[in-house]
Design brief:
Layout lengths: L2 H29 L7 H43 L2 H34 L5 H5 L4 H6 L5 H19 L1 H4 L17 H27 L8 E10 L12 E10 L4 E5 L2 E3 L22 E13 L2 E13 L2
Length: 316
């Protein structure tokens, strides 16, 4: 895949995720838009809910495919590297995908059963049906209880696989919706919102896991480089340096750096930050010092380590 194709796919996925999240946030507003303004106002609210449901389902379909493609990319990277650690991460991602597939399939099945439970020749009248959705969803035991149980288990899986991504919340929640009072349109939109929340959580988790897999190739970026001939200049002398543009290769998690035997932080752009305390002066005169470092590149099936010895001058 070319860099342009990769950029384009990432751009499209980012827009898709943004639209899906916005649609999910709008659902409570649409669900609460029924009023006492008359039949026409209620009909408009029903249609808005129905349209929102369709938008959520369409975006969920696309995100489901995008998540599958990301998992395929992770699998190709992990198998190319052949490292046990990468295969363990891949197993976690595959378990998450299997759980996501099972949960979203269940949500679609519940929607289908709910549609069959509320039949009416008039589509608008069917969407406005009250009571039937609550009767179906809140039966004991019923789909609502089973769904809450599955969401709880999914949230626990997210917490084990990617604690930082899972955060404090579950994958999704039906708490804002009272199935005993809502219309069929509201119930269907709530289920679509739940599916969207699950897929968004899966996307975030897969993104986090993919950064931990050994890359098959490193990304490249241009960086300015200044190399001074001397680290100190006396008055009257000429300061000399070479200025150039270097091609920097990096990938999140693929680089590890040390300074004097201690690991240092490496930014997402592949740049490490060196900060150390110089040795004490003896005799009050300037003296030469140096620091030693390593850069370990983890790409493909092997590691490469580069060693550095960088001199500098300590002055009063």
């Amino acid at each position: 895949m070319t860099p342009w194709m990769t950029f384009t796919r990432s751009f499209i996925q980012a827009g898709l995720i943004k639209r899906l999240a916005c649609a999910a946030l709008l659902l409570p507003l649409a669900a609460g838009s029924f009023s006492c303004q008359g039949p026409s106002a209620d009909a408009a609210a029903l249609l808005r809910l129905h349209q929102l449901e369709g938008a959520l389902l369409n975006s969920s379909d696309n995100l489901f495919k995008a998540n599958a493609e990301r998992l395929q990319g992770m699998e190709a990277q992990a198998r190319a590297a052949g490292r046990p650690a990468d295969m363990a991460i891949l197993a976690q991602a595959q378990a998450l995908r299997d759980s996501t597939r099972a949960l979203t399939s269940y949500l679609r099945a519940v929607r289908e059963r709910l549609n069959q439970h509320t039949r009416n020749e008039d589509p608008l009248a069917r969407l406005a049906t009250h009571g039937a959705a609550g009767e179906f969803m809140q039966a004991s035991p019923g789909p609502a209880d089973s769904l809450q149980h599955q969401l709880r288990r999914y949230g626990e899986l997210l917490q084990r696989v990617t604690p930082a991504t899972a955060g404090a919340g579950q994958a999704g929640s039906l708490e804002p919706f009272d199935f005993g009072e809502t219309s069929l349109a509201g119930a269907l939109a709530a289920l679509a919102r739940c599916e969207a929340a699950v897929l968004l959580q899966e996307h975030k988790a897969l993104v986090e896991l993919s950064t931990k897999v050994t890359p098959t190739r490193l990304q490249t970026a241009l960086r300015p480089v200044v190399s001074a001939k001397a680290s100190s200049v006396a008055p009257g002398d000429t300061y000399q340096a070479q200025v150039s543009v270097a091609s920097v290769k990096y990938h999140p998690g693929a680089l590890a750096m040390t300074v004097n035997g201690k690991a240092i932080e490496v930014g997402p752009d592949g740049i490490g930050q060196v900060a150390l305390s110089p040795p004490a002066l003896s005799g009050g005169r300037a003296q030469q010092a140096y620091w030693e470092g390593t850069i370990t590149v983890r790409a493909g099936a092997r590691d490469s380590t580069f060693r550095l010895r960088v001199p500098y001058t300590v002055e009063q």
